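Inputs:
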Amino acid sequence: MPSKPIQDEKRVFMTGNEVVAWAALAARADIMYGYPITPQNEIMHYWTRLAPKHDKKFLQTEDELSAGFTTIGGVLAGFKAFTATAGPGNTLMQEPMSMAEMMRLPTVVVVQQRGGPSTATVIYSQQEVMLTTFGGNGEGLRIVYSTANHQELFDYTIKAFNSAWKYRFPTFVLGDGYQAKMREPLTIYDPLDKNIELVKPEPYVGKPGTPAIDRPPTQLRNTFSMEEELFEALQEIIGDYEKVAPEIAEYQSFGTEDADLVIIAHGVVSRAARLAVKEMQENGLKVGYFRPITLRPMPVKEIQEIASRVKRFLVVESAYGQLARLLKEAAYRSTAEMVPLYKPGVGVTAEEVVKKAKEILS
Amino acid sequence: MTIQPAMPKSWRADTKPHKFCPGCGHGLVLKALGQAIDELGIQDRAVFGCDIGCSLLSWDFFNVDTVQTHHGRTNPVITGLKRANPDLIGIAYMGDGGGYAIGAQHLVSAATRNERITAILVNNTQYGMTGGQMAPTTLPGQKTETTPYGRDIEQTGHPTQGPEMVAAITKEGAYVARGTVANLRQLKNFIKKALQNQIEGNGFSFVEVLSTCPTNWRTNAKETWHFVENEMTQYFKIGEIKAPDSKGPEEGQTNG
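Outputs:
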């Protein structure tokens, strides 16, 4: 019987890393594999304290390659396995996750973005968007949730396990150093108490019975001899991804109907954008707000729809146009102008957003 | 009607003949492994992981659950699997490049942590799949595509002594041996003991196997056999290096 990690719904005041550990527990994750890198370390710290009390496991690996590949091993054995990383660790994580893409393995990776390129800062950025959405030598066949606050970190970490095992694509929770280290109030709960179904894991290998006698052997490969073989395999994987993409895609938006300018941001920056839009709306300005929650797949339909009637977007991010690249692709054919407010590796305040928006509107 | 040669029960007959080059040692190593799986009766709970390089061709070799991983990454995949479900018997199969070069940190760390898995590493002194480049195990003076004038040990170091390294960094309970395709009965016993050691939960089990690559060695049958039996054994001593009943490395080997 799975343990009941959270008895009653309760208000707590936690750091984001602690929230992730509790959410993984609430999602009935079985095992974490991890390698230290700031700013995600406390996910491991909390997990290793909670895990033994709930009959869960942990393995500290030799690097992020190993953390990713051992996570794959855990998934293959039929367990909800996850890891967490950041920055240069996320770079290494892309190799195992490309294997997860090819084999449709429901790995869960929590990324707490830090500054880049290279070692940069241990503090904060939104510079791992391209890496997390399209990293690895592949086609970006993965699910990426960009959270904005601690409640979302909790909710979407639980959801990440569900989406991973439901759709069988590697799934990422994309947080950042601010969310990782900051304390915020939130409500933690047992998803079963809220009638949130938890998708059950199942083994890929080591199922009951002897292969070839009681059942066919499981034989998973990522190498193909012929171009056509690979093409055929990819057609199926890409086809499946395209089919489920619209139901996975999530977004938030308001005030876009008659807006002269729509401000687009994701993750923690969307909080500044939201505040800025509210303030300007109160002052009678026609500004709207749009925030993709999933960066992969993007909420393409909604972006197309808004881009078809809005003349200008203000794209705000703590990176040099990584979100903007995804938006431009999603808004293809639109003539809407995308005005940048890029602050790679540093935070963005509502005041800065208001100032920039007013410049554009004046 | 053609006569089907005797195969281990755990082999997958419909994927035979296998895809390795004529004269390649992989088929022999996998035969020894198949026999060991049969004799231990673990076909139902063995999970075979194969690396990238020539070993990748074994992804459908057995009627055993199999996962093909990335170059050097088989040890972590099998480690993750075994940690999550200790009832499975995890077998990590790789070449010398995968184990001693690109995946060296994983071999060292799995050994250090005493992971309860069995790693089998095929040493044929070069990278076969990519066309015969120098490997960590290339012999001094040996010509490869990236050492066309012979391996210069001043520039590129000495052949990796893998099992000796693993033996040095593991504690009691580990099983470490070096076998050869020139002595299949002995090789099967080494692999069987390595699996048995995992079944008993004693510790990390590692078998390096001296193997052949006539394609990249550019040798005929006689020269191939001479190289594996007489030249490789000058650097790589055959025998059990660490085991509860270890007899220590034996000098040279005859076909038995």
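Remarks. The interface with chain A takes residues 12, 43-45, 47, 52, 56, 59-60, 62-70, 73, 76-85, 87-88, 105-106, 108-109 of chain B (CB under 8 Å). Chain B has one domain: 25-242.
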